[in-house]
TrEMBL record:
Membrane disposition: Multi-pass membrane protein
Bilayer-crossing regions: 29-60, 67-88, 94-117, 227-246
Domain of life: Bacteria
Protein name (Swiss-Prot/TrEMBL): Cobalt transport protein CbiQ
Organism: Actinomyces slackii
Keyword Transport belongs to the record: no
A Gene Ontology cellular-component term: plasma membrane
Length: 249
């Protein structure tokens, strides 16, 4: 009887493990903050489109092309909505232009946040915040929220799929919006409560609230990608300050 050595079963790697971004979480966080300041501030014109292009390149490099395609389509639709007022002056075009204006900015900001979340593990984020000497009052809430949001989005997607299987599709949402919202929110809240309990237990096991600085197995080093990201952040900050001082557009 022949025997074979048992092979260790390798669990499926999480989605974040397949990303290609080699920059430090601190530099990525800095880039996300700078882009959000530009997008949600008073900047406009070419600087806004530079920030949008940087986010698009980051999505193409680190995430799937589908995410970049959706990002491009939403930006194009927003620009088209803002341009309607030139061809069709009137109240509806003005309303669509205002909606497109804010959709454009929120799309860039949310896409930058999605890129950061998708390319950063929780352990990397916690290690980066400890390395930056941030207080625990910031480290603990940020790490819990960072871990909770992806799980909450998965729960929302699961509940939406279950509703679709039971026949609660788009027409039902139009005919009975309050009942549809109730059928979506109640299961999501129940699942979120269970998830919060599990995350609290996991945080206690990992010693997230201890007074001493925990030992991390993640080694954070600054390299060439971090230098590139830092240069981009400095260039964007300088352009933002110059644009506020001397408006070019």
């Amino acid at each position: 009887m022949s025997t074979h050595a048992p092979q260790a079963a390798h669990p499926a790697l999480p989605r974040r493990a397949s990303v290609r971004c080699g920059a430090d979480p601190r530099s990525r966080l800095l880039l996300m903050i700078v882009i959000n300041i530009i997008v949600m501030g008073r900047s406009s014109g070419w600087l806004l489109w530079v920030a949008a292009a940087i986010v698009g390149l980051a999505l193409v490099h680190d995430l799937r092309l589908r995410a970049a395609a959706i990002y491009t389509v939403v930006l194009g639709a927003s620009v088209l909505a803002m341009a309607l007022i030139r061809w069709w002056p009137g109240g509806p075009s003005v309303a669509l232009g205002i909606i497109g204006f804010w959709v454009l900015r929120f799309t860039i900001a949310l896409s930058a946040g999605a890129w950061f979340v998708s390319t950063t593990r929780v352990t990397e984020l916690v290690a980066a915040m400890h390395a930056a000497r941030l207080p625990r009052v910031l480290i603990i809430p940020l790490s819990v929220i960072f871990r909770f949001l992806p799980v909450a989005l998965e729960e929302i997607g699961g509940v939406a799929e279950a509703m679709a299987l039971r026949g609660y599709t788009g027409s039902y949402w139009c005919r009975h919006p309050l009942a549809a919202i109730e059928k979506l929110v109640v299961p999501v809240l129940a699942a979120s409560a269970r998830t919060a309990d599990e995350l609290s237990a996991a945080a206690l096991i990992r010693g997230l609230g201890v007074s001493d600085r925990p030992t991390s197995v993640v080694r954070l080093r600054w390299g060439v990608p971090d230098a590139v990201v830092a240069a981009i952040c400095l260039a964007l900050t300088g352009a933002l300050l110059a644009q506020n001082a001397v408006p070019w557009t």
